Amino acid sequence: MSAATVIADDAEALAVATELAAEFRKDAAERDAHRRLPHAELQRLSASGLLGVTVPAQFGGADVRTETLAEIFRLLASADASLAQIPQSHFVYVGVLRRQGTWEQREFFFGEVLAGKRFGNAQSEAGTSHVQDIRTRLARRPDGSYVLNGVKHYSTGALFADWIPVLARADDDNLHVAYVPREAPGVTVVDDWGGMGQRTTASGTVRLESVPVPADRVVPHHLTFQGPQLHGSVAQLLHAAIDAGIAAGALAEAVEFVRTKSRPWFESVGEGHATAAEDPLLIQRFGELAIRVRAADALLAAAARSVDAARADLTDDSAAEASIAVAAAKVTAADAAVEVGSALFEVAGTRSALDSLGLHRHWRDARTHTLHDPARWKVQHIGRYVLRGVKPPRHGLL
């Protein structure tokens, strides 16, 4: 891997993200169609310096605003939602180190991140009673080091990672994160992801069999949730940004298709409209879809600003407000992504359904990604907060 650029500030980060989104958009449909994993594109992402933009300034990073980070993800997802999904866990686990890592851990890992190294994830498990029933074990050895055993699923980014953060329970049954090298003995990453959407995320299986872990590679994640926290808000905000990006990308492709490829409906021609773009019924529908996308973008930006405000003055109240703002953005962006991804065909017509065009990837990506966690529970928490003043729970999914 070539040396990574170190990005200086928010403006540079957004400029780099805009440039990369334009590059990644060119072959996004082809990558999806052939499930060509984006190894080269991720190398480009690493070299660009974007993976290091949340490293604190005292460790040499730009420490960009949360609003900037959300916009980076929205831009990337508007081009390729699979590619944008891959670094989501990277930033989440950089955040874990910011909150719970020792000075030495942060110094080491932030140096890795600024050099372009990528974090994956090994978090979710299948066959357990619920999503937070984590059974992977981190057993302490007499010398103070650990040994790690378990099986993880939906491990987005692990196949491409330099380091795999593993969520596990220690002997005290508390949650910890073990940062494990991708090539560590006992680690097997299986490319067995077969989702209908987000085809190139390689969100497959990670097997951990007696993996040795030094004590200084383990972070006490359970401490994150013992006070006001933004872990869940930031993680969910990035998911919302991906959904907003999918919606924006689908709308842009629909606009381009109708302007350049669609024929007008014969009844529209009979009323004097020479092109599909002049059809008043299509104009109405595009207006409705644009409103959905603008609403998602606006709530995303507002939620990001709420997270930034809470970070500057973190209390139970500010954390709750950030969590609710992010929940509202996530519900809205998810709805917009699914609706616009589907409506693309409604407005573009029969030809848009050709498999060779790959336009269906937007809906497939939206429908797959929005299953990550149920929006109905976010609506519940928003309602409880508004009606009864009940603060949302402290967990990583809200």
Brief account:
With 398 residues, this protein is α+β, with helices and mostly antiparallel strands. 51% of the residues lie in helices and 10% in strands. Strands 5-6-2-1-3-4-7 form a seven-stranded mixed beta sheet.
Describe the 3D structure:
With 398 residues, this protein is of the alpha+beta class. It contains 13 helices and 7 strands. A 7-stranded mixed β-sheet has the order 5-6-2-1-3-4-7. The chain is globular and about 85 Å long.
Question: How large is the share of residues in beta strands?
Answer: 5-15%
How many distinct helices? Answer: 13
What string, H for helix and E for strand, traces the elements in order? HHHHHHHEEEEEEEHHHHHH
Low-confidence stretches are none
Helix content: 40-55%
Q: Which structural class best describes the helix and strand composition? A: alpha+beta
Strands, count: 7
Average pLDDT? 97
Q: Looking at the structure, what is the overall shape?
A: globular
Give the SSE layout:
Layout: H1 10-26, H2 28-34, H3 39-48, H4 66-79, H5 81-85, H6 88-100, H7 103-114, E1 137-140, E2 146-152, E3 163-170, E4 175-181, E5 187-190, E6 205-213, E7 218-219, H8 231-260, H9 266-270, H10 280-312, H11 316-348, H12 360-369, H13 375-388
